[in-house]
Design a protein that fits this description.
The structure is a single chain. This protein is of the alpha/beta class. It has helices spanning 27-34, 42-48, 50-53, 61-78, 96-105, 122-141, 159-175, 178-181, 195-199, 214-235, 261-270, 288-305, 319-336, and strands spanning 12-17, 85-89, 110-115, 148-151, 185-191, 241-246, 276-280, 309-311. Belongs to the ferrochelatase family.
Length: 384
C-alpha cells in the first residue's frame, strides 16, 4: 500500500463530539448530562435551555456532525483510504460508549480519534480523554475487548482548518457596505473559559499564573494573527483585530476570559469604528454558541448600537477540513510506524504534540484519561 494512503496501525476513525438535543423533550436531559455532578436544579436547567427552545429544541451540532461524517467518508473514498469512520458524542446520542461498543463488535482494535475541538484546554481535550477512559472501562466491565485509542493532535493551525476561515472573513468583509468595509475591525471570537482553566491549558511549559491564558489563549492569538495577515495580503487593507470571548457561564464571582463580544461591540462603536466582522475561530461548526451568542445576541446588540456587523463562516464540513483530517490521520499512522512524516502547521507555534504529556490541561479532580502519557489502561483504572 502506498505510504500516502496507509492508515496502519489504525483500522477505524472515531469522530468524537459534544452532542446536542434534537427536540424539545431532549433539552433538559441533555443539559443534565452536560452538568452532571454540579448539583444544578432542574428548574435552572429549564432556564438555561431557553436558548435551545428558541430553535425548536434542536441544536445544529448533530446535523453538522453528520455532514462532516459524510465529508470525511467522501474524502477518504476519493483518496483511496479504506478506513471506516464512526461518530460518538460526549453528551447525547450517539453516545461514545455505544459507538465504541459497535466498533469493537465490528472488529476494530486500534482506533484514531478526532475531537471536534481544535485547541488545548481541559474541556476541549483532557475531558474528551476522560470520556474515552470511562467508555473503555465500561467495555472492560462488560467483558468486551478493549481497543487502543489514539487522539489526533490539535489542528488549530493546520492549513485545512485555517484557510477556510480566511475565506470566511474575506466573504464577510465583501458583504459589508462599501463605505464601511475598509475601516472594519475583526473580532476573532472563541468560547470563554475560567481564567484558572486557561492558565493551566496545554503542556506544563505552557502554563501561566497571571491570567495570561496558557496555550488556550496563545493558540487562538496565533491563528487570529495568521488570518489577519492573510486578509491583509489578499485585500491590501490592514484591518485592526482583537481576540474576544463569548458564551460565558458559571458563577459570576469566578473570573473568566474577557472581553465579551457584546462588550467589545459597544467599545468599538464608542471608539468610532464603522463596522465589525465577527469571526468564530474557536468553533469547528455553527452550533448553538454561534447561532445564539453571535447570530442572535451579538447581532441584536450591534443593531441596537447601529453598528454594521457580519459574521464569518466556521469550517464545518469544508472539503479542505476533511482533507486535513485525512492528513492528520496518515501523519499519525506514519509516526506510529516509525516514520517521520511532514507535519503541516501555519503560524509561529508549530505542530502540536501527538501524545498529551503528564500535567497537560490538568483535571479539576484526578481522573484517568486515555490517549495520554499518563494512561495506564482500563485494567488499572476505573471510571470515577
Amino acid at each position: 500500500m502506498p505510504e500516502q494512503r496507509d492508515p496502519r496501525p489504525y483500522d477505524a476513525l472515531l469522530l468524537l463530539s459534544f452532542g446536542g438535543p434534537e427536540g424539545p423533550d431532549d433539552v433538559v436531559p441533555f443539559l443534565e448530562n452536560v452538568t452532571r455532578g454540579r448539583g444544578i436544579p432542574r428548574e435552572r436547567l429549564k432556564e438555561v435551555g431557553q436558548h435551545y427552545f428558541l430553535f425548536g429544541g434542536v441544536s445544529p451540532i448533530n446535523a453538522q456532525n453528520r455532514e462532516l461524517l459524510d465529508a470525511l467518508r467522501k474524502d477518504f473514498a476519493e483518496n483511496g483510504l479504506e478506513l471506516p469512520v464512526y461518530w460518538g458524542n460526549r453528551n447525547w446520542a450517539p453516545y461514545l460508549t455505544d459507538t465504541l461498543r459497535q466498533m469493537v463488535g465490528d472488529g476494530h482494535r486500534r482506533i484514531a480519534v478526532l475531537a471536534t475541538s481544535a485547541y488545548a484546554s481541559y474541556s476541549g481535550c483532557r475531558q474528551y480523554r476522560e470520556n474515552l477512559a470511562d467508555a473503555l472501562a465500561a467495555l472492560q466491565a462488560e467483558g468486551l475487548p478493549v481497543p487502543q485509542v489514539d487522539k489526533l493532535r490539535h489542528y488549530f493551525n493546520h492549513p485545512g482548518f485555517v484557510r477556510p476561515m480566511v475565506d470566511g472573513v474575506l466573504a464577510s468583509l465583501a458583504a459589508l457596505p462599501d463605505d464601511v468595509r475598509d475601516g472594519a475591525h475583526l473580532a476573532f471570537t472563541t468560547h470563554s473559559i475560567p481564567t484558572a482553566a486557561a492558565d493551566t491549558s496545554g503542556t506544563p511549559d505552557d502554563h501561566t499564573e497571571d491570567g495570561a491564558g496558557g496555550a488556550y489563549v496563545a493558540q487562538h492569538l496565533d491563528v487570529a494573527r495568521v488570518i489577519a495577515d492573510a486578509v491583509r495580503a489578499e485585500t491590501g487593507v490592514d484591518h485592526p483585530w482583537q481576540l474576544v470571548y463569548q458564551s460565558r457561564s458559571g458563577a459570576p464571582h469566578i473570573p473568566w476570559l474577557e472581553p465579551d463580544i457584546c462588550d467589545h461591540l459597544e467599545e468599538r462603536h464608542a471608539a468610532g469604528v464603522p463596522a465589525v466582522v465577527m469571526a468564530p475561530i474557536g468553533f469547528v461548526s455553527d452550533h448553538m454558541e454561534v447561532k445564539y451568542d453571535l447570530d442572535t445576541e451579538a447581532t441584536a446588540k450591534a443593531a441596537e448600537l447601529g453598528l454594521p456587523v457580519a459574521r464569518s463562516a466556521t469550517v464545518g464540513a469544508d472539503p479542505r477540513f476533511a482533507a486535513a483530517v485525512r492528513e492528520l490521520l496518515l501523519e499519525r499512522a506514519a509516526t506510529e510506524r516509525g516514520r517521520t512524516p511532514e507535519r503541516c502547521a501555519l503560524g509561529a507555534l508549530g505542530p502540536s504534540h501527538d501524545l498529551c504529556p503528564v500535567g497537560c490541561c490538568p483535571a479539576r479532580a484526578p481522573r484517568p484519561a486515555a490517549a495520554g502519557a499518563d494512561w495506564p489502561g482500563p485494567v488499572a483504572q476505573a471510571p470515577a
